[in-house]
Amino acid sequence: MIDKVVNTISQEPEMFGHPKGLFYLFFAELWERFSFYGMRALLTLYMVQEIFKAIVERDTATAVVYASYGSLVYASTVIGGQISDKILGMRASIFLGGVLMALGHFVLAIQNDIAFFLALAFIVVGNGFFKPNISTFVGSLYKEGDVRKESGFTIFYMGINIGGFVAPLLCGWLAAEYGWHYGFGLAGFGMLTGLFFFWSGIKKNVFGDRGMPLDRAVYEKKIMGIPQKTLIPIIAFLCAPGIAYLLASWQQNYVSGIFKFIGFAVLAYIIYIMIKLDSDARKKLTMAVLITFFMTLFWGFHELSGSVITLFAARNVALDGIMSASQTNALNSMFIIILAIPISLLWGFLAKKGMNPRTPYKFGFGLVLAGVCFYILSISGASADENGMVPFAYLLIMYFIISIGELFMSPIGLSKITDLSPKNIVAFMMGVWFLSSAFAFQIVGFIGEQLAVESTDTNVGGLETLTIYTDGFHLIAMYALGAGAIVLLMSPVMKKLLGNVH
Questions:
Q1: Residue 145 region by backbone torsions, left for phi larger than 0, else alpha for psi between -120 and 50, else beta
Q2: Which residues pair with residue 318 across a beta bridge?
Q3: Is the model's pLDDT at 2 over the cut of 60?
Q4: Alpha-carbon distance 112 to 182, whole Å?
Q5: Which residues contact 233 (CB under 8 A, 6 or more apart)?
Q6: Cβ within 8 Å of residue 13, ≥6 positions away
Q7: What is the distance between the alpha carbons of residues 67 and 445, in angstroms, rounded to a whole number?
Q8: Rounded CA separation 63/445 (Å)
Q9: Where would you tag: which of 124, 342, 371, 421 has the fewest CB atoms within 10 A of its CB?
């Protein structure tokens, strides 16, 4: 029996020492992220300059819609992941998500306000099915205890950042040269390319039997005479108009109310669980909650790159033909690609010396770095020219620093959630971790509303907007630095909550 297992493993196709399927998933995710970040780079500017250009509160409307869209995009992964686990399986979920996202990007290419909100809704639903499953699929390629798994995920995440780097450059260039909808259209073709790579891997059988529905009977089960494998795509498609309505109702901001309710409900459930745990497990779960909260704060500052910072780049940064405002969204991914391996090696080097900081210190430093980068933007006004335009170097340094902060926090936090959560609620806590990004967009929306410029002038900027942004960045810097300082001061206590988890 053992020989049979060994032979099966050895017969699985490999490439560069990894399962061959990894590289098909690498390109599928690269192109999916190309579509996602290419569209995101254009989204805020498109809303300000086209969708809401006729109203004075266009920055406010843009901030609310962007925040609602971002929150729903990340929250949908919790629902999509559950449906995949229980009914569809990863393959069908990835295909369904990819088709819906491609549809959303192509609908964005239609110049119509109703089409705009419907397109965002399709992307929200599609991302819910695609995003959680393709990462899980990568993990399924490796047996438990396989030492190649970590490097496999490193390769996979490099694909994410390559897509995130190239997409704003190309989609931003197309939008500037030929029109917004060419940029959105290219994002749609990116998604279709990602689906082609995934389909190609299935046709070549590089995934074996992975990603199929766990229970075929459940997959085929009929409800109202329709098999669930057919009913779920129909329901997913029909959900889009409802989500589009929520996004279009920016003045009522229903999404913010929904997330307030979700936040209270999640917190109440975690407290209920904590009461039933022993002391050691309670401490670890408390630490998992704190890590998630601090990560939410960091993402709330980080995700301003697609909204307020993009507007700042358009209105107050002397880009001088280096790149357009939408293309500046590529800078974060560029620095992640450059810095990921050196910082990973740094942790390894410090671990050998017995000096590797424990998780609370890394989180504290990450938040401090977020504060520093916004402080740098806040002092950029001192170097502004007579037109209120600041040197591009400030933006470049800001993205460099916040990328280091991201590498201090994001990869480490994800791994610690599984270590700190009680085994019977690991899946629930992973869902809460994904929700942290959704709640972060509510922070983005709040800040975006505070820094909104009231004007119908599509060319507003320069001295009219400089102080609004630099004062706002100064306030953000103080909050981020304060949060970082609190985490660092609390680190000795949080180390005790970690127990034997590093």
A1: left
A2: 391
A3: no
A4: 15
A5: 96
A6: 19, 20, 21, 206
A7: 5
A8: 5
A9: 342
**End-to-end Cα, the chain, rounded Å:** 38
Amino acid symbol at 421: S
Report the DSSP pairing between strands 222-223 and 390-391.
unpaired
Q: How much is the pLDDT for 430? A: 75
Q: What are phi and psi of 318, to 5 degrees?
A: -80, 90
Helix (H, G, I), strand (E, B) or coil at 189: helix
**CB of 253 within 8 A of CB of 64?**
yes
- What does pTM read for this prediction? 0.91
Burial letters for 67-100: b for 16+ Cβ neighbours within 10 Å, e otherwise? bbbbbbbbbbbbbbbebbbebbbbbbbbbbbbbb
Q: What are the φ and ψ backbone dihedral angles of 15, each rounded to 5 degrees?
A: -150, 125
Residue 4 has pLDDT above 50, yes or no: no
d(CA 406, CA 387): 33
Q: At 241, give phi and psi (nearest 5°).
A: -60, -35
| Orientation angle between helical segments 254-276 and 58-83, nearest 10 degrees | 40
As a whole number, the mean pLDDT across the chain is: 90
Side-chain-side CA neighbours of residue 99 (13 Å): 11
Instruction: Quote helix, strand, coil % in the chain, to nearest 5.
Output: 80, 0, 15
Mean pLDDT of 48-57: 93
The residue type of 120 is L
C-alpha span between 228 and 233 (Å, rounded): 9
